[in-house]
Amino acid sequence: MVTKQPRKQRLRLFSASLHSRHKHLSAPLSRELREKCKTRSLPVRKGDRVRVLSGDFKKLEGDVVGVDMKRGLIQVEGGSVTKADGTQVPRMIHPSNVLLLRLAEDKERARVLERRSGSG
Fold first, then answer.
1. Which long-range contacts (CB under 8 A, 24 or more apart) does 80-85 make?
2. H-only helix segments in 50-106
3. Which of 13, 60, 75, 94 has the fewest CB neighbours in a 10 Å radius?
4. Distance (Å, rounded) from C-alpha 87 to C-alpha 81?
5. Residue range 67-97, pLDDT digits in tens
6. Is residue 1 part of a domain?
């Protein structure tokens, strides 16, 4: 960071482009994944298996259904609330409140893991 001022840090965070916001959607890995992948955290992707650590859905385990880059939130399967008219709506969760249990494998992520494990 160039500046220490919180207002400037927030300004840069919220005015960042969507492809660079992907870094801010990181979540810590479980102990088994941490030993296997040789890294502490990774950005959350659709298809990952996560456990919610805090909030209304604490201890909920489910797959990531969607990732909202603009708002910096993720949608977990089973994390929904009932509205007054009885309809179910998904509740978005911040990625810092989840723990990655299983990774969705693809070529891009395999390259990232290979790069990170080599420089440890």
1. 81/56
2. none
3. 13
4. 8
5. 999 999 999 999 999 999 999 999 999 999 9
6. no
Number of domains in the chain: 1
Per the domain annotation, does 65 fall within a domain? yes
The predicted model scores a pTM of 0.85
Q: CA separation (Å) from 93 to 1, 27, 50, 106, 113?
A: 26, 12, 11, 23, 25
The C-alpha angle with vertex 45 and arms to 39 and 47, in degrees rounded to 5, equals: 110
**Within a domain: 71:** yes
Q: Give me the domain span that covers residue 45.
A: 9-118
The pLDDT assigned to 58 comes to: 95
**Spatial separation of the C-alpha atoms in residues 30 and 36, rounded to whole Å:** 10
Each residue of 10-23: b (16+ CB within 10 Å) or e? eeeeeeeeeeebbe
